[in-house]
Amino acid sequence: LAKALNNCLYNISCAATAEMLPFAHRAGLPLDTFVEAVSTGTGQSFGFQQWAPLILQREFEAPKHGFPMGAAFKDLETLAAAAAERGFEPPPVVSAARHTYEQALAQGLAGEHKGAMVKVWESKLGVVCSSAKGTPKDSRDVLGRSKQ
Fold first, then answer.
1. Could you tell me where the DSSP H helices lie in 1-148?
2. Strand partners of residue 49
3. Over the stretch 86-127, which tens digit does the pLDDT of each residue have?
4. CA triplet 61, 67, 70: central angle to 5 degrees?
5. How many CB atoms lie within 10 A of CB 41?
6. N or C: which end of the chain has fewer CB within 10 A?
7. Burial of residue 142, with CB atoms counted within 10 A of its CB: 0-12 exposed, 13-18 middle, 19 or more buried
8. Are 101 and 15 in contact (CB under 8 A)?
């Protein structure tokens, strides 16, 4: 159970990464700068460090770049079963992450790594998160404010 709980913390950060990158992109933030800021700021996590660069490179192949998402889903199921056996619900943040995973699996992404969850939110927000390296720097800071 401890291993599943540990992996659920990681899974939550993977789902959050998949949600925040398209949100940042849709909000007009330059993604390379956003990823750099999060990677060195308080929002950084192992999941973000692992998947954000691969997402921006559009590299979703598993197992080359990570464990297939469909096989990794078992930890969220283990946590839900453990909570039910003990008479309580899984924490809301786990349920939210599970919802994102389930949407990705329903879209046929089970054979790709966890970073591929980004495709769920890209579709919802009408964006594709990819690296802009080699293009001129945006004139906004990481919060979207105009630089002067």
1. 2-26, 31-39, 46-56, 69-72, 74-85, 92-106, 118-125
2. none
3. 999 999 999 999 999 999 999 999 999 999 999 999 999 999
4. 90
5. 9
6. C
7. middle
8. yes
